[in-house]
Amino acid sequence: MTLSITQALAIIYENSTVVSTEILPIEMALGRVMWEDSIATFDLPRFDNSAMDGYAVKCSDAHTTVTCSEVIYAGDNPQMTLQKTHTIKIMTGAPIPKGCEAVVPIENVTLNDTQITLPENIQVNAHIRRAGEDIKIGTIYLHKGEKVTAYSIALLASQGITHIKVTRQIKVAVFGTGDELRPHFEKIEPHQLYNSNTPMFLSRAKELGCTVQYIGSSADTMESLESAITSALSADIIITSGGVSMGDKDFTKEAFTNLGMTLHFDKVDIKPGKPTAFGTIGDTLIINLPGNPLASMVNYEIFVRAAMRKMSGMNAFYHTSIVTQMRDDFRLRAGKHTVRLGNFDGKTFMPFEKQLPGMLSPLAAANAMLITLPEVSSLEKNKHVKIIPISWEITSSEQEDFFTS
Ligand code: AMP
Ligand code: MG
């Protein structure tokens, strides 16, 4: 039975169990997924402090001349109390002294030795950063299921957190199948082919935060396949390519089944990549992708990536899309859910004209893809389309105006 993409994804999500956890120093946790909420144990800022280099004042002294006899620096622990008709010079980040109602920036006063003339109208709290205005004690500042980024590491450090509980890295094992395949570091005969899928799958898995096991490739025999599978069984996800369609030597699924795989589906209504198969052996997921590089790549992006996100413990594990407009007219053959790789430049999307399942050249050039419904045969210029990002870093080769007016 051929499943829809949505049905296939539902089965993958259902069978993807979240991996175990470990405790890591925050500096080592980049890219991992938080396994616990982080709750603030103190206010941030911790104490009321000055947002400017300036003068600590009482608002009722506005438009008068006051006397300055003291200075508070960042790192000081001031004990004095500000009196009326006086001011205390204060630096950015320094604690606000008792009795201070506002800070007047240096550039807004007139100086005459220790005599400071203040401006009119000083608002209460002006240029004072209040304790807890950023993060209140007791509130959750990072949530379970969120990815650890440089910015979450900054938050953790600001709370004096040294270690956090995160999910461990997902272990991915990869091999290709095909008598024609040879590794890229060997000499080949004209009728042979370099295995490009295995390095692609491994590198993408690394990019997505997994650890990887390189198994290389298997010949198109049951013995060779079973031996490759056996050495991959300790992985969380085994990704293979090739040997899953109607060919005489397409034994991949059979070999996995012989070793105990429960097959959940082996056909998806997707072009390219219909013969994509998914099974499990215990908690290990098995995804057999087609051998054709472009077909395997798009199904990896749609199905393997979905499994990785779910297994990593991410809360937001579903695919999402960006709505953009077509750069130009594009025609395609109706009849199937069709994936088209292309380029999103931040404003519009354009599918590549030249893309066949067996091609490799479009892969590196694509930063997004779209999936059309079976009835779609053309996409007109300016039509709104939903694209799924592959890579998020969108830059320009020409300097652009990026300001909002
Ligand atoms: P298959 O799915 O085994 O019928 O293979 C489909 C096509 O993909 C054939 O032209 C294979 O030679 C090619 N192919 C299979 N595996 C790989 C691989 N690992 N790297 C590059 N091409 C491959
Ligand atoms: Mg083959």
Average pLDDT rating: 97
Q: Can you list the strand order of the major beta sheet?
A: 7-4-6-5-9-8
Structural class: alpha+beta
Structure ligands:
adenosine monophosphate, magnesium ion
CATH superfamily of the largest domain: MoaB/Mog-like domain
Give the overall shape, derived from the CA principal axes: elongated
DSSP E strands, number: 27
Largest sheet: 6 strands, mixed
The helical percent reads 10-25%
CATH architecture of the largest domain: 3-Layer(aba) Sandwich
CATH class of the largest domain: Alpha Beta
Q: Which regions have little confidence, pLDDT < 50, spanning 5+ residues?
A: none
- Indicate the radius of gyration in whole angstroms: 30 Å
CATH fold descriptor of the largest domain: Molybdenum Cofactor Biosythetic Enzyme, Chain A
N/C terminus separation: 54 Å
Main attributes of the structure:
single chain; 405 residues; alpha+beta; Molybdenum Cofactor Biosythetic Enzyme, Chain A; Molybdopterin biosynthesis moea protein, domain 2; Molybdopterin biosynthesis moeA protein, domain 3; 4 domains; six-stranded mixed beta sheet; 7 helices; 27 strands; elongated; binds adenosine monophosphate; binds magnesium ion
